[in-house]
Amino acid sequence: MWKVLIADDEPKIRRGIHSVLERLDPDIEVVAEAGDGETALALAEETVPDILFIDIRMPFLNGLELIEKLHVLRQDWIIIIVSGHDEFDYARKALSLQVFEYILKPVNEDELRSTLEHAKHELALRRETNRYINWAREKISEHQGVLKEQFILEWLSSSLSNTEIEDCTKFLGLSLPETPIILAIRLEEKALSVGNLQKGYRTILTYSVKSILEDLLGKNTLCVITRDDTIVGLYTEELRVLQEKIPAIEAAIEEATHQHPVIAFVPSGAMGGSAVRSVQEAYEEALSELIKKSNYQTFVLLAQGYIERNYQYPDLSLEETAMELEISPGYLSRLLKQATGYSFVEYVSRVRIQHALQLLADPAVKIYEIAEKVGYRSQHYFSRAFKQVLGISPVEYRKGGMSQ
């Protein structure tokens, strides 16, 4: 059923509209009638109709004043003016008030039927839209924690504009600390290997560390987990206080996980003199410090050895290499970058090109054969990679271009 309120100071008009509406549509129920604007406002609040038919000339509150007050109530109803005055100023004002329709008296039944159908269609559309909006709000509420964590990571990685940061903090109801101390913690990777359960086990331990950090540092410390299972905390108290808490944090993590945590922390803000370290710079420094503190050299050497043995396979990937070393791909990528200055793909490309140089010394070996031998699916990809590394093509190199 669609609920209707009729507001008109003429009882005859009210009865006429009431009668016609219920005759035109059995789904219409007139729930209230009013002879003045004030009564109509009170009845609208009480009955919350779907459609309101309102006259302009009424005592106490005229129709336009009534509509302004109805808008304050923020209900999703449709307002139709039924007036005996065909005046431009009224129509213009009604338009500014987002009135659905302006019908002139005497009311034409066909016009009323058409207006009623349009109003019902609009209401049905609004309700369906509101249903989806409410569903989306529920989903956002359910995943609020994930959204906040993802936003904080993007903020720390300097991948958001000031406008995006402002919009997201407002949307998520989040207050970002201005000059926090960035605390970064990782568990020693190699000890986390437990066969096929490695990834799931690592996740459990990582969330355990996050929980410990939140308990010991307080709920005001924002804690997030990066893609490579580093736990990052944004601590807002004094550095001295954090330093005093570090032994307790280490002990709690070791007791709960039976793993040794690697911890690094870097304060943001003033550094002395005029130098200022941004939150994003502190985040990057903390991650770099974490890698330096970790026993990463062994993993880098193992990765380099694995690449050296398998560079000739086109499908060689970061994920495959990380699985062989029993560490996460993100962590291996960061270690390799720290040690060599190159990403995994860049490093593999350089290894392949280095081997290609040896083969190019033999003029009997064709370039497409060299491409296949060093792990490229085609001469085209090989030539492009070769030029990216050395600045010239394999053909130019073989012709002595490197010495020119």
Structure description:
With 404 residues, the protein is of the alpha/beta class. The chain has 17 helices and eleven strands. It has helices at 11-24, 37-47, 63-72, 88-96, 109-142, 144-156, 162-172, 198-217, 239-257, 279-293, 297-310, 318-325, 329-340, 344-360, 367-373, 379-390, 394-398; strands at 2-7, 28-34, 51-54, 78-83, 101-104, 181-187, 222-225, 231-235, 261-267, 269-272, 275-277. Strand 7 (222-225) and strand 8 form a beta hairpin. Helix 8 (198-217) runs antiparallel to helix 9 (239-257) and helix 11 packs across helix 13. It is elongated. The model is unreliable at 191-197 (pLDDT under 50).
Please compute the radius of gyration using only Cα atoms: 35 Å
**Structural class from helices and strands?**
alpha/beta
The fraction of residues in strands falls at 5-15%
How much helix, percentage-wise, in residues?
Answer: 55-70%
Strand order of the largest sheet: 2-1-3-4-5
Count the helices. How many? 17
Q: Kindly, what is the distance between the CA atoms of the first and last residues, rounded to a whole number of angstroms?
A: 87 Å
What would a concise description of this structure say?
With 404 residues, the chain is an alpha/beta fold. The radius of gyration is 35 Å and the shape is elongated.
Throw out a few tags for this protein.
single chain; 5-stranded parallel β-sheet; 4-stranded antiparallel β-sheet; 57% helix
